[in-house]
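Reviewer comment 2.1 asked that we show a complete input and output for one of the modelled complexes. We chose the adenosine-5'-diphosphate case, as it is the one discussed in the main text.
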Amino acid sequence: MSLPTSRQVAIQAIARAEYKLDRVDFQKVHAKDLFGCLVFNEATQRERLPKNVYQALRRTIKEGAPLNPEVADAVAAAMKDWAIEKGATHFTHQFQPMTGLTAEKHDSFLVPTGDGRAIAEFSGKELIRGEPDASSFPSGGIRATFEARGYTAWDPTSPAYIFENPNGSTLVIPTAFVSWTHEALDKKTPLLKSMDALSKQALRILRLFGRSDVKRVFTTVGPEQEYFLIDKNFYYARPDLINAGRTLFGAPPPKGQELEDQYFGSIPERVLACMADCEAQLFKLGVPVKTRHNEVAPSQYEIAPSFEDSNLATDHQMLIMEILKRTAPKYGLACLLHEKPFAGINGSGKHNNWSMSTDTGENLLEPGSTPHDNAQFLVFCVAVIRAVSRYPELLRVAVASAGNDHRLGANEAPPAIISVFLGSQLQDVIEQLEKGTATSTKSGGTLDIGVSVLPKIPRDAGDRNRTSPFAFTGNKFEFRAVGASQSIAGPNTVLNTIVAESLDFMATRLENAVRDGKDLNTAIKELLPPIIRESKKILFMGDNYSAEWYAEAERRGLPNLKNTVDALPVVIRKDTIELFSKYGVYSERELQSRFNILCENYIKTINVEARLTGYMGRTMILPAALRYQSEVAQAVNTVKQAGVDASDQVELLRHLTMAISDLQKALTKLQHEMDHPHGDVYDHAKHMRDRVLPAMNEVRRTADYLETIVADDLWPIPTYREMLFIK
Ligand code: ADP
Ligand code: MG
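Response of the prediction step:
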């Protein structure tokens, strides 16, 4: 008897495992008392800071007023005392470099006093600015080595919090990360700039409507995170999951998701326990997680928070991913955030629910009940439609990644063609508006169209089109093409900027008309129809998965950037540079650097996958196949020696030998393609897409076939039927 394979060891371990599931006790501490207890939030600031300091800090947070050094010192001192009471020993400036992850370097509060003792110190300077020696983060060419350092700058609009660890906690200070030449090296800086740009333009529109009470408009985001949880014993037996985040091998399971018995089904106990633990931790961190459920694919789940302003929502989204990843192993699970961990079944996305809201709490995409409100709603709504119709490629490239390429357009996620779904009610209103008949009335009096006599547009939650990449869902738009592992900062930066551009355009037109003596309603009635006419090619009500739509989209001239490599050049196109420079979101140099980083990320991702494919193919799959081949060869001999006709066994051997040789040929070909990259960074990316990926797929095809014929007891890696269904 040979030794058990790591796959068999994994299954035995799972069968024997007992897990400690009761780690949180909501009876002892109610969720509402947990909420925000580790956050230096407004309530804590009020309680802990002298009144004048508190007020100065709030002004900084609300209005961006600069913070003077004494105030910063006072805030830092209070923050430190609070953190130490909560068990913190260290502080860190956390930032979001272009890796798409978060980064942090911890510093102790302790300072030696010279007499052999130490005291805890934390100054305003340390709070406001940090200098991590972070020269190894991707800068896409912005930083030469002589200026390789950037600095982190405190973002007071995202409150500091305590990240707990069994052996001492850390005070985490959210920061922006910029180079000494002031270029953004991170994802937060452009997001904050795009929020400012949108606020400025939205305020111009609101002023026209007489809204002098509003001081700032925020974009709001509620991101729904899809993820997989599989047993960690399987995870550790799969080098591809560990190193690439997705399976590079695996024959389709006999049972997939066709029975649709998973979606919204009852959540397995161990998974539910893990979810509740994650939620308890997230509550403490002030992340308003709200919804949990099973998703469509087996072992796939979703977690969604209530919406918050885009900056906070982005920071919280990073925390959600972090907590999911950290907590799963405590329950013997591994959390997979990749866009497509398993071929052939649904991948994971992040639905980015997006809207605009005033600082007085009014959602600008909420259809109103009065004609006045409705006119305002329509201006903002048409601004979004116009933005998407003018810049669909920017939205496309904002979600481009090697991982998301497996998902977009795979008939489970929206296609790479960006279109907008409005729902039948709103679509009807927009169509009527387009005709420009300001007060056209549907006979029977059910529908009065016209800016001044608009009907109440009902919230139309039932009218959903799950296939649309960008759908109006009653009081917000849902951008569904975002990948599960992605930071939502990039997509929201694009969304905010393109809508800011539309609002700018519309505000200018309206301001001019009003200045010329037109009344606002007339000005709006004249403004909207041509915009709708020019934008309506982006509106699509039908099935986005259908072949007809691909043909129709082409007729309409909508771009179909099928993969990351097709999409990337959009980043450095002249019109992109003009747009982002105009609103101060990205400079040309920053866009060039981001283009380089995106190309490099793509190349590196495929390269890791290709190496893993070669490694697993040669050292795990081929040996298993060869062992089986020799078993069959022995069987042939034994049968022959026994004087029995062995032609069926010979046939099997021949067949198997052919499959093995196909695998070997495919491995050789893959190695050859990997050894021959060429050209600049973009050519290299193309080479990865056009030569390396297909070569990988060919290795996979031959290996997956072998999985279906090699003796099960020899197969070394956990199979789809096991990973997805043993819970
Ligand atoms: P579903 O899309 O699953 O039916 P909901 O429509 O209730 O669920 O909400 C989904 C997400 O949309 C939640 O994260 C929610 O917080 C978010 N959301 C709701 N209103 C807004 C808004 N005004 N701005 C941004 N996100 C919002
Ligand atoms: Mg949704």
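Confidence is low (pLDDT under 50) at residues 438-451. We note this here for comparison with the apo prediction described in Section 3.2.
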